[in-house]
Every structure is written in C-alpha cells, then in structure tokens.
Amino acid sequence: MTIEPVNTSAAPAPSGGYSQAIVADRFLFLSGQGPYSPDGSLVDGSIERQARQVFANLQAVAAAAGGSLARAVRVGVYLSDLAHFDEMDRVYREIFGEPRPARTTIQTDLVGFHIEADAVVLLGD
User: Fold this and answer.
1) What is the pLDDT of residues 48-60, one digit of tens each?
2) What is the rounded distance in angstroms from the CA atom of residue 65 to the CA atom of residue 77?
C-alpha cells in the first residue's frame, strides 16, 4: 500500500501536525477543513457562506490529488449548533449529487466559526 501526503495552496494550510489529505491506494482521506480562505482568513457570516467555503476547501484539496467531491464516499460534518443543520443540509445537497455519500453530522465545540467537515474520496475510475 502506498501512502502519500497531499498539500495545496488552494486551501488553507494545516494549523497543526497533519496533512491536508492522505492518499492510501485508491482512497483520499481529507482532513477537516474550516471556513477559511486559502490565505487563512476566516469567512465571516452565515452558516451558508461558511459551509460553501468548507466544501470549496475540501474540493480544492481533492483536486490537488486528482480527485473530486463527486466521488466522495463518506463525509463528516461538525456544527457549532444543530440549529444550523437544515441550512447546512441545503448547501450540502447542492454540492453532493446522487448517490450522496454516507454522512455523519454532529454538534461540537467549534470556537469562532459554525462548521468544519472532512471526507473520504474514491480515486480513479
């Protein structure tokens, strides 16, 4: 099994000791992305704006590995408050087509922003 890190300047740099993603054989494991622009600045505002940035960041890292969120098989979504679920889900349904990936959505103690997400993507045909 080959294991290779993926890093791109098209998404925010990691804020700790981890890679933006890891390719392991035909799977791409995307680390959690928050609502930050590639330059590291927080996208302020609504859960919709923040969700769009989070999914754009995941897509940018997936693309750097030759993948796409269109081939996501699992997504984890972390919300500061489950009251944001419906709004997040509306954006999510725009981003992810059928069949939608398996997903877990949980409320967690995010400080200063509303949403974070990670994903697993199948690479290749």
Assistant:
1) 999 999 999 999 9
2) 21
CA 63, 117, 17, 110 torsion-angle sign: positive
The whole-model pTM stands at 0.96
Please report, for the domain that includes residue 43, its CATH number.
3.30.1330.40
% of residues, the chain, pLDDT over 90: 94
Burial class (CB in 10 A: 0-12, 13-18, 19+), 20: buried
CA–CA distances in Å: residue 63 to residues 53, 72, 88, 90 = 15, 12, 22, 23
Domain that holds residue 10: 3-122
Rounded to whole angstroms, how far apart are CA atoms 44 and 98?
30
In what side-by-side order are the strands of the sheet with 21-24? 3-6, 21-24, 27-33, 115-122, 72-79, 102-107
